[in-house]
Amino acid sequence: MPLFNMRGMLQHAYDNRYAIGAFDLVDNAFLEAIMAGVEICQAPVILSLAESHFSAYDFATLMPAVVSAARRSPVPVAIHLDHGASLESAVAGIRLGCNGIMVDASEYPYEENVSRSRAVVEMAHACGICVEGELGYVAGQEGEDAEHHPGEIIYTPVEQAEDYVRNTGVDCLAVSIGTVHGHFRGEPQLDMERLEAINKAVNIPIVIHGGTGLSDDQFRALIARGVAKINYYTALSDAAAASIREQSNRSGGYTHLLAGVRDAIRQEVIRCCQLWGAAGQADAVRAHCPPWQEVEHVILFNTEGLSDEQVADMMQEGQRVLSTLPGVRRVVTGNAVQADASYRYCWVIRFAHPAVIDSYRVHPEHQAFADKRFRPYAGGRVSIDYQETKST
Question: Which of 82, 104, 145, 171 is an active site residue?
């Protein structure tokens, strides 16, 4: 099963009044448990990797496992970069396999938040990628995740929400209405009237960060007022830690300590999917949303006026330059195996989405390399963009 378009997944949830879990993961145990839970529930899911957690794992190392798990799953999956700190972070997340991006410029003054968010939206939309923005600030109070979000809560201004969405072009909006990252110090007090007004003003899927500690009734009220994506980590982390503490009183090594972690996380994921209404929605999302398919950009060519060493230098430079462009996931160069092949060389460049075909073609760094280093020496080349044929 291919990945699915996150924009379409969230719109389906928004239109049908349920919420998709964006479960933050920090290792393979979290990944496997989350996928087991949503597959039992037949629920769509967003696998979320927060830049604020990157000190706990290597993003580039974990992402291939995340992509593999998503592609093997029978339920609709999107992969999201959570709390991306910069345009460069967003480009890197797309390159590694994310098809959703959160640009978190909420700590900046309003005009700078708009400017930074708009820059990420322009880049990401040219790659077909869904973008989440944040207006207001969801601070931390207590617990593991609170330290990554210092300061005080800043509630989302209703009067700015419509302006922010219009001027940035974000596809979904994270709001601050009283939730916190980590644990609440007291009983959660949520501003539902503010949320309802924001929803009426923006009319796009709303995102809640800091879902741990809310009551069942509060979750239902959030979803009734436009929340279609709920970011969830602290409760999963607490469940995993409790399992390890229980196992630590028994004999055994590292794997024994981790024996119950997957089950603890899985059970919490199942509870959330059932409570938020996502359970049983997999088939409906699959019918509603387009699958996410990458594009292979292939160029076959010969060269004139270059030595073998110069060709190698040119292709090495191309790998270095082109692999950094937004939406490019891999750049491979090759030499023909057969001595009598019609073409001696090839490029195979993987694009994140068909939209990248156009944005890549007009990117100034691509044009500069192609016009100065490639096209003058590679006449008669063959170029084609193709997608993998999926069996039915």
Answer: 82
